């Protein structure tokens, strides 16, 4: 087949779509990966191969029950999927009619909401955050009745800010009769607040997204959770693949959610929160850095007018951080995931050299 035939066959809405520029697609080399908010720590897990000849459970009970207990919800309120990204995709596919319905996002925020919607020919409306990264509820109110799913990221990637509980409550009330409000809590373990899982019974339109990719150090297994009313979960189960979770993934997830697994995760979160503060204290005096947003997650966001030179310099040394300057309101901003103490110190040393040579 010729390329022109493939172009002609390709679904119309995909023609101008650029794939998500994941950290791993942008840079595959390097040694210090501080660009994808992964954990620098990895646990140890056992694999029992005796069931690998069988198709896995769609929703493995051990995983569902363990996550429900961890999140303080009932098993009927939990859906497990191939990462939180699949949870986002399922919400869009299960609740939006392609070519007709819309979602609402509040940029600057996580990129997959828009990409996922565009992939399914669902329109993306935007109510940008205020300058202090709080929700602009007046702007959001304009979209009541016009969107099916509202995505709120808290703690927000890449600003590290948490949305005030009163604001989430107002958003839930605003869209009570017309849309789901999905609160993406991928970083909740690093944050001070409680999160919204405990509120599911009070808000029928509330959805909470969670993941094992960040605090649990398991980005490689692709495992995430959608917490919502049983009615919402049942609709998502209509749209999910028959075997979304490979058997080894289910086994590892169950171990990560065991009492020992949870204790390991909590210890690492404490370590990373200390390292984050230390890194921030060390970086700030080095150059012209201005801290942007807050630190309720495992990364920091800094603005520097030298961001391009800095990025290039770091990449040349195998240190990868993430350019966020294309995001709304985040000109010249760089996001740095917290690594091990050694990785953070290599980053500090590299940045120190960079600014010394610049002599600023
Ligand atoms: C990393 C991230 C996710 C994706 O989680 P996966 O479980 O790895 O798919 C979702 N939301 C936000 C805000 C993230 O930063």
UniProtKB/TrEMBL annotation:
A Pfam family reported for this protein in Swiss-Prot or TrEMBL: Aminotran_1_2
Span of domain Aminotransferase class I/classII large: 35-350
SUPFAM superfamilies: PLP-dependent transferases (SSF53383)
Source species, domain of life: Bacteria
Keywords of the record: Amino-acid biosynthesis, Aminotransferase, Histidine biosynthesis, Pyridoxal phosphate, Transferase
Reactions mediated catalytically: L-histidinol phosphate + 2-oxoglutarate = 3-(imidazol-4-yl)-2-oxopropyl phosphate + L-glutamate
Known cofactor(s): pyridoxal 5'-phosphate
Pathways involved: Amino-acid biosynthesis; L-histidine biosynthesis; L-histidine from 5-phospho-alpha-D-ribose 1-diphosphate: step 7/9
Molecular function in Gene Ontology: histidinol-phosphate transaminase activity
Modified residues (N6-(pyridoxal phosphate)lysine): 214
EC numbers on record: 2.6.1.9
InterPro entries tied to this protein: Aminotrans_II_pyridoxalP_BS (IPR001917), Aminotransferase_I/II_large (IPR004839), HisP_aminotrans (IPR005861), PyrdxlP-dep_Trfase (IPR015424), PyrdxlP-dep_Trfase_major (IPR015421), PyrdxlP-dep_Trfase_small (IPR015422)
Family: Belongs to the class-II pyridoxal-phosphate-dependent aminotransferase family. Histidinol-phosphate aminotransferase subfamily.
Assembly notes: Homodimer.
Name the record gives this protein: Histidinol-phosphate aminotransferase
Organism: Bowmanella yangjiangensis
């Amino acid at each position: 087949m010729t390329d022109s035939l493939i172009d002609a066959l390709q679904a119309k809405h995909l023609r101008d779509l650029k794939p998500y520029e994941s950290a791993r697609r942008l840079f595959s080399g390097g040694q210090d990966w501080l660009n994808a908010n992964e954990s620098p720590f990895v646990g140890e897990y056992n694999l029992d191969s005796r069931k690998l000849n069988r198709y896995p459970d769609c929703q493995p009970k051990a995983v569902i029950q363990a996550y429900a207990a961890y999140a303080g919800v009932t098993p009927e309120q939990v859906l497990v999927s191939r990462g939180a990204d699949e949870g986002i995709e399922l919400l869009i596919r299960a609740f939006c009619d392609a070519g007709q319905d819309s979602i609402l996002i509040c940029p600057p925020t996580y990129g997959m909401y828009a990409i996922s919607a565009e992939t399914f020919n669902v329109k993306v409306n935007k109510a940008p955050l205020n300058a202090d990264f709080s929700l602009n509820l007046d702007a959001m109110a304009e979209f009541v009745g016009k969107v099916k799913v509202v995505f709120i990221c808290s703690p927000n990637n890449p600003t590290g800010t948490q949305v005030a509980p009163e604001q989430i409550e107002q958003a839930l009330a605003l869209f009570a009769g017309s849309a789901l409000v999905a609160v993406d809590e991928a970083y909740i373990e690093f944050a001070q607040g409680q999160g919204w899982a405990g509120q599911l019974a009070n808000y029928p339109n509330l959805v909470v997204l969670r993941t094992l990719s960040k605090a649990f150090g398991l980005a490689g297994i692709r495992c995430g959770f959608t917490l919502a009313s049983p009615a919402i979960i049942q609709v998502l189960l209509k749209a999910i693949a028959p075997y979304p979770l490979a058997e080894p993934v289910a086994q590892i997830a169950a171990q990560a959610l065991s009492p020992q697994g949870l204790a390991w995760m909590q210890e690492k979160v404490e370590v990373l929160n200390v390292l984050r503060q230390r890194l921030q204290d060390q970086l700030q005096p080095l150059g012209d850095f201005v801290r942007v947003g807050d630190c309720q997650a495992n990364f920091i966001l800094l603005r520097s007018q030298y961001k391009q030179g800095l990025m290039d310099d770091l990449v040349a040394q195998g240190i990868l951080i993430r350019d966020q300057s294309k995001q709304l309101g985040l000109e010249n901003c760089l996001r740095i995931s917290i690594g091990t103490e050694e990785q953070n110190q290599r980053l500090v040393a590299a940045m120190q050299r960079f600014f010394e040579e610049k002599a600023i």
